[in-house]
Amino acid sequence: MKRATLVNWLLVLAVVTIAAVPLVFIGGEFGGADGIAAERIAADHPDYRPWASALFEPSAEVASGLFALQAALGAGFLGYYFGVVRTKRRLRRESDAPDGEG
Amino acid sequence: MHIAEGYLPPLHAVAWTVAAAPFVVHGARAVVRQLRTDPESKLLLGAAGAFSFVLSALKIPSVTGSCSHPTGTGLGAVLFRPPVMALLGTIVLFFQATLLAHGGLTTLGANAFSMAVAGPWVAYGVYRLARRLGGGLALGVFLAAALGDLATYCVTSVQLALAFPDAASGVLGAVVKFGSIFAITQIPLAISEGLLTVLIVRLLTRVSPAELTRLGLLRPAPGKEIAA
């Protein structure tokens, strides 16, 4: 394995580890930090009433799907980008024509 | 994690919207200008937006026993300068506010100010500073993405503290209170975002060095072919 590739995989491994360690070693509900902030506001300022609510509030199940969709759209485009750029580069290298720029 | 719908008093909501709006409008013009002067960067610009889309969808557990997500705005800020991310970040927030009930329309201004304005500018400033002090590309990108991410949530904490000062300790006490919810949770995530942004930049360096050179991230290497 090339060194650059190894470093890339180590970066991925580090990110996975950072996410996994709290799950394994720290107990917790792992609720959203925004929800916890909202709870604290409700506890410390009981007279505050949120004056607007979401127009469309998906159920937890549907929301998880929509979050997955968001990630998929982003990841899909990133994959498309790398595919296009790599192919372009390869074709350019293969043709290797002096007027190949562009 | 953004400020939830309705969780800023109307006055604050309007004020942050007014504060963020010029940045977003300026950002929209910056995107148009970028595409007009450098049409070839269209795909990479989309990729920077896509990166923010992915990262802000990933809710990652943290050491505080709660979850938050990265912002992914540091990459675009370093590649295309911060104004571009003011628009792209706001689009991400709008998507989450309308379809996912995450964040909100009344708090869109405040959230845009933290994630699409403050975060990218901090990221860009940190990147420039790190490079000027002799830091390499990877170090600069890591610090930029990590600190930009962290700055976003520090601004969120301040925004909530201004709206909900602590009864006993005032605004400062509330900054600490909300900071312990948002900023501490965010530290490991900021590190993750830094690492992931370095990964993407490493991949970009390999597949599109010419583009990164044009954007000023890589110096034209005299010995190496850039775009054969």
TrEMBL record, chain A:
An example Gene Ontology biological process: cobalamin biosynthetic process
UniProt entry tagged with the keyword Ion transport: yes
Gene Ontology cellular component annotations, sorted alphabetically: plasma membrane
Membrane topology recorded in Swiss-Prot or TrEMBL: Multi-pass membrane protein
Record pathway: Cofactor biosynthesis; adenosylcobalamin biosynthesis
Subunit and interaction comment: Forms an energy-coupling factor (ECF) transporter complex composed of an ATP-binding protein (A component, CbiO), a transmembrane protein (T component, CbiQ) and 2 possible substrate-capture proteins (S components, CbiM and CbiN) of unknown stoichimetry.
Its job: Part of the energy-coupling factor (ECF) transporter complex CbiMNOQ involved in cobalt import.
HAMAP family: CbiN
Protein name per Swiss-Prot or TrEMBL: Cobalt transport protein CbiN
Gene name of the encoded protein: cbiN
UniProtKB/TrEMBL annotation, chain B:
GO cellular component: ATP-binding cassette (ABC) transporter complex
Major localisation: membrane
BP GO annotations: cobalamin biosynthetic process
Record bears the keyword Cell division: no
Pathway: Cofactor biosynthesis; adenosylcobalamin biosynthesis
Compartmental location: Cell inner membrane; Cell membrane
Membrane topology: Multi-pass membrane protein
Swiss-Prot/TrEMBL keywords: Cell membrane, Cobalamin biosynthesis, Cobalt, Cobalt transport, Ion transport, Membrane, Transmembrane, Transmembrane helix, Transport
Membrane-spanning ranges: 13-32, 84-105, 137-161, 181-204
Function: Part of the energy-coupling factor (ECF) transporter complex CbiMNOQ involved in cobalt import.
Subunit structure: Forms an energy-coupling factor (ECF) transporter complex composed of an ATP-binding protein (A component, CbiO), a transmembrane protein (T component, CbiQ) and 2 possible substrate-capture proteins (S components, CbiM and CbiN) of unknown stoichimetry.
PANTHER family: COBALT TRANSPORT PROTEIN CBIM, PTHR43627
HAMAP family, alphabetized: CbiM
Family: Belongs to the CbiM family.
Protein name: Cobalt transport protein CbiM
Organism name: Pseudonocardia asaccharolytica DSM 44247 = NBRC 16224
Name of the encoding gene: cbiM
